[in-house]
UniProtKB/TrEMBL annotation:
BP GO terms, sorted: methylation
Keyword tags: Methyltransferase, Transferase
Protein name: Site-specific DNA-methyltransferase
GO molecular function, one term: methyltransferase activity
Lineage of the species this protein comes from: Bacteria, Pseudomonadati, Pseudomonadota, Gammaproteobacteria, Enterobacterales
Length: 146
């Protein structure tokens, strides 16, 4: 069906700010680490880094869907789900989790599925706790936040 193109990748530093605190710089490091993602990095940068770190081939299929305005990516038929939205309001948690769960179940992905979110994106700890509890109730237990 013709040329589908190709992607070019360039080796770069990590998208995640390294933790380099000493006794003298601890306070500054804590303030800087409120958001561990380096300035100027986008969702695709984070997803590519996670795929490489998890040993997932960069040529696998990546699908995206929107749930309550939040973009969720699904990698390689459900091996990895990510939502790197800058803000996840408490009011969006129910629709977001329902969307991820329905998608996960439709793929029959297995128990090794991993989900990633940005820790500082959650409106509050209750929103994060609710999201984790709902996903865990439906078999998604390998949850991580950056």
């Amino acid at each position: 069906n013709g040329d589908v193109g190709f992607r070019v990748f360039k080796l770069d530093t990590s998208n995640i700010r390294p933790w380099e605190a000493t006794a003298e710089t601890l306070s500054e490091q804590i303030d800087a680490y409120v958001s561990p993602i380096l300035e100027g990095r986008n969702e695709e940068d984070l997803l590519t880094e996670l795929m490489l770190k998890r040993g997932i081939d960069l040529s696998v299929n990546i699908e995206t869907r929107q749930f309550d305005g939040l973009t969720v990516s699904c990698v390689d038929g459900g091996k990895l789900f990510t939502c790197f939205a800058k803000q996840i309001p408490a009011s969006s948690v129910e629709e977001l989790t329902k969307g991820i769960i329905d998608w996960y179940k439709s793929l029959k992905a297995g128990k090794d599925t991993v989900c990633y979110f940005l820790d500082d994106a959650f409106e509050n700890n209750v929103a994060k706790t609710n999201l984790c509890a709902i996903l865990e109730q439906h078999g998604l237990t390998n949850l991580h936040s950056l």
